[in-house]
Specification:
There is one protein chain. This protein has a single domain, classed as Alpha-Beta Barrel (TIM Barrel). Helix content is 40%, strand content 13%. It has eleven helices and eleven strands. Strand 7, helix 6 and strand 8 form a beta-alpha-beta unit. Helix 2 runs parallel beside helix 4 and helix 10 crosses helix 11. The radius of gyration is 20 Å and the shape is globular.
């Protein structure tokens, strides 16, 4: 199995108290210090020999995540590391269809982006991804999502967005694209081109599943998927139903005749301590903060694909001693056919940084070796 760090370039506040902590007294956001601390975590997993770092984030929300430009941050990390693979989890292109309105469940920063940001272009995204892949010398994995929950047409548009990019990367001279949502003429002159990725034909793709309706289409299209262990915060399904979703995804992959074995990546809140008593105490503190974070009164919550709600996390998590976490990973591997775990060691950005680093050390020394 492979193991990666899930990081949203977590915020850091004066006094080490987040705004959804009852003891928060108005400490300001420390942006420079947050960058220093997040770099320490990236450098640690590079030195510890982990396989991946996965970068999440979104526009206009610095309360917990400070990563509005995941492709740009991926390029910077690629330039400052040598071994570890880097994945965007996720890059979410701005897409809007005629007459479409923002979802009623959208958070204020998501609504602002929907109402005001210009639409993203697949040609420009293809250029950016190619540059990241070249800078990293082939260490990049492109993870993307289109907020397709409840909309077959948005899912169709998202897949078409990806098809434009794949054609640009694979054709020596772009022959043009005529689709339902995107239309481009062929390049006019032989010298017209975009950068090609380091990996051929293009970087591997990983698509986090943001709705139950997406599992079968993802399998039919042959895309590797990431899931949140349990469920997403606004689509509580439970482990039993999610297990069946993954089974249907795998069957759709096989029925479509795609080569290879359909496996999944599992993103899961993780906290490891040396003793059960310490793990239970730290878990209780984290769950209390997470409930306030998702309450809507103080924290902002999340609608990201793969983000786990407190109820889902209470059911499925990697909280405990190293021995307990090892046993839980064996179960995840069995029920979700997973070959990779994204450790979310700072779930809801509510974990003290010394606890984050201790969790990473224990995972490195006592958990990951059990699966290598």
């Amino acid at each position: 199995m492979d193991f990666g760090l899930f990081n949203t370039w977590n915020a850091l506040y004066e006094g080490d108290k987040v705004p959804w902590d009852a003891d928060y007294r108005g400490g300001k956001l420390l942006e420079e210090e947050a960058y220093v601390q997040n770099w320490k975590e990236i450098e640690a997993v590079e030195e510890m020999g982990w396989d991946y770092v996965w970068l999440g984030g979104g526009h206009f929300s610095k309360q917990a995540s400070m990563d509005p430009q995941v492709l740009m941050l991926s390029a910077v990390i690629a330039a400052r590391t040598e071994r570890i693979k880097i994945g965007s989890s996720i890059h979410r292109p701005v897409m809007k269809q005629a007459g479409e309105t923002v979802s009623a469940s959208a958070l204020p920063h998501e609504r602002y982006g929907f109402d005001n940001l210009m639409l993203e272009d697949p040609i420009q995204t293809a250029e950016q991804v190619a540059i990241v892949d070249q800078v990293s010398k082939g260490r990049f994995i492109y993870g993307a999502g289109g907020r397709t929950r409840g909309s077959d047409s948005r899912r169709e548009q998202f897949f078409e967005y990806l098809e434009v990019m794949k054609q640009l990367w694979t054709e020596e001279h772009f022959s043009g694209f005529e689709g339902k949502y995107y239309s481009y003429p062929a390049f006019y002159e032989p010298y017209l081109a975009i950068p090609k990725p380091y990996q051929r034909p293009y970087p591997p793709m990983l698509l986090p599943v943001d709705s139950q309706e997406s599992f079968v289409p993802m399998g039919q299209q042959g895309y590797r998927i990431a899931v949140g262990a349990g469920s997403s915060p606004h689509n509580l399904r439970g482990t039993a139903v999610l297990t069946e979703d993954v089974r249907m995804y795998r069957q759709a992959w096989i029925d479509a005749g795609h080569p290879g074995e359909p496996t999944t990546v599992v993103r899961i809140p993780t906290l490891v301590a040396e003793t059960k008593e310490k793990a239970d105490r730290q878990t209780e503190d984290l769950m209390s903060l997470a409930r306030r974070y998702y309450s809507g009164r103080v924290g902002i919550g999340s609608t990201d694909a793969g983000a786990a709600s407190p109820d889902a996390t209470k059911e499925v998590n990697l909280f405990g001693t190293p021995e307990e976490v090892v046993e839980k990973i064996y179960v995840l591997r069995e029920i979700f056919s997973t070959d990779e775990i994204m450790f979310e060691v700072n779930w809801t950005s509510s974990v003290p940084r010394d606890v984050v680093m201790n969790t990473m050390r224990l995972l490195t020394d006592q958990v990951i070796p059990e699966f290598k």
